[in-house]
Amino acid sequence: MPPDSSGPPVTLRDIGKALGVSHSTVSLALRNHPRISTAMREKVQKAAEEMGYRPDPMLAALATYRRGRVDQPINASIAWINAWPDPTDLRKHREFDHYWIGATKAAAKFGYRLEEFRLDANFTPARLHQILNTRGIRGILLPPHHNQPDWEDFPWDHYSVVRFGRSLHKPECHIVTADQVANTILAHKEIYKRGYRRIGFVAPNFELRDNGVLFELGFIGGQRLVEDAEAIPPLLLRRRDKPSEVRASFQKWLKQYNPDAIFTTLSDLPAMLKKEKLQVPQDIALAATTILDTNVNAGIDQHPEEIGRVGFLMLNSLINDGARGIPDIFRQILVEGSWVDGSSLPVKGAAKTAKKTSKR
């Protein structure tokens, strides 16, 4: 039977009085704060539901505002799980390092510390759960991984979990990532606006099972939005082929389509063009899916620090809602990037001028 809603609203003090605890304990328990035991949190939340408690949205907004204005004491941790074969490689990627920075700053505002845990042969998923459970850590952030870790029988149902990016296939939890489709459409438009008409796209073929297919779809969508640009098919290089075979595929594509600009995920594309005696930007202009982790300075800023910040905020909402484990309804939050001008892709006339100057 639903609680009677005709009387005055139920307050935190009412719940505390009914349970014999303080209203501050009730408040913390309703927010799943780790200082309150699991048993007490469940007891308080059950009583709140039975008594018909409803939070005041104005007071909740005020509390959030105050947390943003005042530094919170660090009193709990959020786990950042690193299962890379060489854990030091993870944050060598500037994008991923900025995820960490954004999440760390956001966590601190809510009184959390972001703490890295490195899995290896000696630090197994079972050992990880033992430590997290003992310390009352209930939130996990999973950064991107090039490998697929063996999570064994890790009990995800004990934790609120958020992934960054789509590279991890397991666990199938909520995701915060860059909007690769929108970013690639934006890049195609910006390259076109700068006078280029034969716009190509180059990426590794193996990425098709992850983000690569989204970049490809965005590129094809970008082609459809301009009328007089030539529709050059994407070049998807098989990196497992021999270097000579990769180069032969690249040479064939260049000769057949003669692109005047390329949008790419590859950090070594400038070196590949140099081997073909092509100068950037005089012969071919370049833009990249990320200006942080490629040797190209024109392209997309994916705002990775914002991705990190939003990742923590999503995790915090799951913790406060008591949502744990693998969700039945999967959610994705996409952060749209911005175009950044750079010398690798000037206005087309400027590229021609630079080429003439270099010949003098």
UniProtKB/TrEMBL annotation:
Record-linked PROSITE patterns: HTH_LACI_2 (PS50932)
Gene Ontology molecular function, alphabetical: DNA binding
InterPro entries in the cross-refs: HTH_LacI, LacI/GalR-like_sensor, Lambda_DNA-bd_dom_sf, Peripla_BP_I
Pfam families: LacI (PF00356), Peripla_BP_3 (PF13377)
Domain of life: Bacteria
HTH lacI-type domain boundaries: 10-64
Keyword DNA-binding attributed: yes
Record has Transcription as a keyword: yes
CDD domains: HTH_LacI (cd01392)
Keyword entries, A-Z: DNA-binding, Transcription, Transcription regulation
Protein's name according to its UniProt entry: LacI family DNA-binding transcriptional regulator
Species the sequence originates in: Haloferula chungangensis
